[in-house]
């Protein structure tokens, strides 16, 4: 009986957290971080402040949790895409294959950009964002290395540096795309980065 009760409590808590995060993403996307409040999120999710504070301490914690969830979903999409094999052994094909499953989410990009701006002014937010970005790179690194191995290449720089360059370039391209700028050269830029910082594995 205790096990069943505990399982229900855990499931209910997870559902509450998920609903709060979904509501927070909507609120943050509409109002921006500076004009969003705990009350706004609770009202949108249909919960009390107590439910919020049993899951999060601040709105910054909510954004950090959203970042973790979004980063996890991104890595999972890339892993699933690569699990089905690659269309060839060309870097252009690898980049194009992965880009096909990377979403351009205007709402999330707006929230992430605002939090980045806040991190430039707030040391605590900066620490949180730096940690989240490092965790994303750590999850992407082995995925990238495995993909390169499958086309006979390997990094010539620390993998974290290579992932950092690719993530930064991709974020910049997404920003340009959402602003309506032409980004046709984007995939090529990512390919060039891979060509520059990787090499063929000797036979």
Automatic annotation (TrEMBL):
Residue span(s) of domain HTH tetR-type: 14-74
**UniProt keywords, alphabetically:** DNA-binding, Repressor, Transcription, Transcription regulation
For this protein, the record's InterPro entries field holds: BetI_C, Homeodomain-like_sf, HTH-type_TetR-like_transc_reg, HTH_TetR, Tet_transcr_reg_TetR-rel_C_sf
Output the Pfam families linked to this UniProt entry.
Answer: TetR_C_6, TetR_N
What parts of the sequence cross the membrane?
Answer: none
Query: What ranges are recorded for DNA binding?
Result: 37-56
Recorded protein name is TetR/AcrR family transcriptional regulator
Please name the source species.
Kineococcus halophytocola
